[in-house]
Amino acid sequence: MHTTDLFKQRLICVVVIDRADQAVPLAGALVAGGLNNIEVTFRTAGAAEFIKLIREAIPSAIVGAGTLLTADQVKQAVDAGAQFGVSPGLSEAVSKAAHEAGLSLFPGVVTPTEIIRALDLGWTYLKFFPAETFGGINALKSLIGPFGHTGVKFIPTGGITAVTLPDYLAMPQVAAVGGSWMADRKLVAENQWGKITKLAVEAVKMTQPV
Fold first, then answer.
1. Which secondary-structure segment (H or E) carries 4?
2. Torsion, Cα of 197, 27, 193, 209 (10° steps)
3. What is the spatial distance between Cα 92 and Cα 90, in angstroms, rounded to a whole number?
4. Which residues pair with 177 in a beta bridge?
5. Residue 131: how many CB atoms within 10 A of its CB?
6. Chain Cα centroid distance, residue 111
7. What pLDDT is recorded for position 113?
8. Model confidence pLDDT, tens digit, residues 182-191
9. Contact 82, 64 (CB under 8 A)
10. H/E element holding 113?
11. Nearest to residue 183, comparing CAs of 166, 195, 171, 174?
């Protein structure tokens, strides 16, 4: 998968899946709403299994692995068919494993030092996380100042909502935005697939040029 495929839409739905029987219906609900980019977080034990289930059942979905904290998790994600990886922080072990596996990785950064280190490790698409907690739009603008010429692109995630989404998307250095409001864990637990599709439709509309 080329990152251009992932970033055509500029929106990634970050999901936490608790049970195997939720994986395919959830992904199907998002894709039905026009949202194909799905980040399955490794916050639950079955994450690798869920990625594999979605990849096999819904080929049009672009499925990544989130919350990658170890090299072993990178291996699990790749073996399951993950098309990209996301980490909440910057780990050399995770970075090395991703490079060796040929997995596109978006490591988490929040300071200039971390951005420099990520660039040194060969990554230019960086997760700005947790975005809202660490200053949101204003903080990101400040970081773009000294790094805009490097070609770095940001994927702000963490606390972003439908209300703040347009402000982030207005920044050309933002490749995509990660959000979970379209598939909140409570909605998933209640099998609210129709509601999730509706929220996905609304979110995707916001990514379209006016």
1. helix 3-7
2. -10
3. 7
4. 11
5. 25
6. 19
7. 98
8. 999 999 999 9
9. yes
10. helix 112-120
11. 195
Q: Is 127 a catalytic residue?
A: yes
Task: Give residue 126's identity as a one-letter amino acid code.
Answer: L
Structure token digits, residue 137: 């739009």
* Residue in 127, 132, 141, 153 annotated catalytic: 127
**Length of the chain in terms of residues written:** 210
Task: Classify domain 3-207 at the CATH class level.
Answer: alpha beta
Exactly one of 8, 39, 75, 96 is catalytic; which is it?
39
Q: What digits encode the pLDDT tens for the residues 29-83? A: 999 999 999 999 999 999 999 999 999 999 999 999 999 999 999 999 999 999 9
Domain locations in the chain? 3-207
- Concatenating the DSSP letter of every residue in 115-150 gives HHHHHHTT--EEEETTTTTTTHHHHHHHHHHHHGGG
For 99, residues 6+ apart whose C-beta sits below 8 A from its C-beta are: 105, 122
**Structure tokens that stand for 11 in this block:** 């929106």
